[in-house]
Amino acid sequence: MHSTVQGVSAERAWRDPAEMIVISYSTNVPSGYDRVYSIRINELEYAIRDGNFNSLPITRVYDSSNNEPRYIVHARVGMNYQLYVRNYSRNTNYEIVATVDGLDVLNGKQGSLNNNGYIVNAGDSLAIKGFRKDKHTEAAFQFANVVDSYAANSAQGDVRNTGVIGFAAFELQGPAQNALPPCSGQAFPADNNGYAPPPCRK
């Protein structure tokens, strides 16, 4: 899959990530719980999309032991998918370190918070469609049985980590170029407060 990247120089503002999101995937998803199509805690929104860029429903299960939600997406074996992150900040860029099945999506090695990540600029979005093979190519993510997974067939992989997708977001140093916030849909766009709405990025 053709996908071009380039290296840039950037420094993290803090050693620890601003936030971490873990999404499990499974062919068996519990019923009777809330379903969402994206996860947003602060300035960043996370989603898992199919090959047609449609966000997959994520089941949110609350863990009573630590009062934290667990997120599970239904996996259909053989379906391609991608990781999606949107940055709603107007002045902060973030570095996104992402893993699939415990493997770093950039270098294919075991996931670590010390690894380099992708940068998503203020007001921009990021789609990661597969493991990075080189600067111009990705190997598409595809839901698979454990024995057929990349983790099971990689020297760096560990099948115990199969079924886990991770995002770690690090705030970057320095002010970002002031970006327009993404436009959001309105049910009644003509019924505003009588003034021109602020600009936004389509």
Which secondary structure elements does this structure contain, and how are they paired or packed?
Blueprint lengths: L18 E8 L7 E3 L2 E2 L3 E7 L7 E6 L4 E7 L5 E8 L6 E7 L2 E2 L13 E3 L4 E4 L1 E5 L2 E6 L21 E8 L31
Parallel strand pairs: 1-6
Antiparallel strand pairs: 1-14, 2-5, 3-4, 4-7, 5-6, 7-11, 7-13, 8-9, 8-10, 8-14, 12-13
Mean pLDDT: 88
- CA-CA gap between termini: 26 Å
Helix content: under 10%
Number of strands: 14
Radius of gyration (Å): 18 Å
Give me the secondary-structure category. Answer: mainly beta
Number of helices: 0
Shape: globular
Biggest pleated-sheet summary: 8 strands, mixed
Structural summary, described in words:
This protein has about 200 residues and is mostly beta strands. It has one domain. Helix content is about 0%, strand content about 40%. It is built from no helices and 14 strands. The strands form 2 sheets. Strands 1, 2, 5, 6, 8, 9, 10 and 14 form an 8-stranded mixed β-sheet that branches. Strands 3, 4, 7, 11, 12 and 13 form a 6-stranded antiparallel β-sheet that branches. Strand 3 and strand 4 form a beta hairpin. It is globular, with a radius of gyration of 18 Å. The two termini are about 25 Å apart. The mean pLDDT is about 90. Keywords: Lipoprotein. This is Lipoprotein.
Question: What's the short version?
Answer:
This protein has 202 residues and is mainly β. The chain is built from no helices and 14 strands.
Throw out a few tags for this protein.
0% helix, globular, mainly beta
